[in-house]
Amino acid sequence: MEIKNKKEAKERIEKLKGVINHHRYLYHVKNISEISEEALDSLKDELKKLEEKYPDLVTPDSPTQRVAGKVLDGFQKVKHKVAQWSFNDAFNFEDLENWEKRNKNFLEKKLK
Q: Which of 5, 16, 47, 50 has the fewest Cβ atoms within 10 Å of its own Cβ atom?
C-alpha cells in the first residue's frame, strides 16, 4: 500500500495497530494464531517504517512501543541475572548485517 500523505499514514497506522494487537492477543492470551508469524512480522515492520517516517504519529500504545500481551495462567515470573536481549525481525540481508553489527558492538563494550 502506497501512503501519499500524513492523513493516509495516520489511518494506516491505526489500522495496523488494531490488527497487530488483535493477533498478539490471540497468540499471547488465547494461545492461537489466525495468521503466520511471518505475516504478523510483516505487519509490525510496516508499522515501524510508517512510524519512522511520521514520528509525530507514534503513540505510547503502539505495538512498537511495548511488549505484547499478558502472561498466560500457569507461568511464573523469573528474574534474570543478565538482561535479556530483544532480537528485531530481519527481512533482508541488510537487516541481518545490522543485527550482527549491533551484537558485535554490544559484546565489544561488555568485554572492555
A: 5
For residue 70, what are the contacts with CB-CB under 8 A and spacing of at least 6? 28, 29
CB 20 within 8 A of CB 42: no
What's the structural domain count of the chain?
1
C-alpha torsion sign, points 95, 101, 102, 103 = positive
pLDDT along the chain (112 residues), means of 10: 90 97 89 92 94 95 79 76 73 87 87 80
CA 104 to chain centre: 22
In a domain, 107, yes or no: yes
Asked if residue 1 is part of any domain, the answer here is: no
Nearest to 43 by CA among 29, 30, 27: 27
Residue 46 resides in a domain: yes
